[in-house]
Specification:
mainly alpha; 5 helices
Length: 128
C-alpha cells in the first residue's frame, strides 16, 4: 500500500530535516520540500483515477465539459494553495503562507463565479 510508503517518506524527511537543520539550517527547508514533492509524485496515479471517475460522471450526467474543467481547477487550486502555504509555514514564513491562502481563496471565488451564475440562471428558469 502506498500509504505506508508515503508515511515512511514523511517520517524519514522529518528526521533528515532535523539532522540537516543542526548542520546546515539553510538546507532543512529544501529537504522538507523535496520530501513533499516525492509524496506528491506517489499521488499522481490516484489523481488520474479520480479524474477518470469524474470524466465518466460528466459523460453520464451530460454536463458541460467547461463546468467540469472549472470544478477541477478549483479543486486543484485549493490543494496546491494549501500545500504551498504549508511549505511557507514550515519555512517560518507564516505571513507569506497567509497571503498564499488569501490568493488561493480569491482565485477560487473568481473561478466559481460562472458556476454560481449558471446555477442562478437555472433557478430563475425554474421559478415562475
Amino acid at each position: 500500500m502506498d500509504i505506508f510508503k508515503i508515511l515512511a517518506i514523511a517520517i524519514l524527511t522529518c528526521i533528515a530535516s532535523l539532522i540537516v537543520k543542526q548542520v546546515k539550517p539553510e538546507f532543512a527547508s529544501i529537504v522538507a520540500i523535496s520530501g513533499g514533492i516525492v509524496i506528491l509524485l506517489f499521488l499522481i496515479n490516484y489523481v488520474d483515477g479520480i479524474l477518470d471517475v469524474f470524466r465518466g460522471l460528466v459523460q453520464k450526467a451530460n454536463l458541460s465539459p467547461t463546468l467540469f474543467s472549472s470544478i477541477l481547477k478549483i479543486i486543484g487550486i485549493g490543494y496546491l494553495t494549501e500545500f504551498t502555504a504549508n511549505i511557507c509555514s514550515d519555512c517560518g514564513l507564516s505571513s507569506l503562507a497567509s497571503k498564499v491562502g488569501l490568493a488561493g481563496k480569491i482565485i477560487i471565488l473568481f473561478l466559481a463565479l460562472p458556476i454560481v451564475t449558471n446555477l442562478l440562471d437555472v433557478l430563475m428558469g425554474i421559478l415562475p
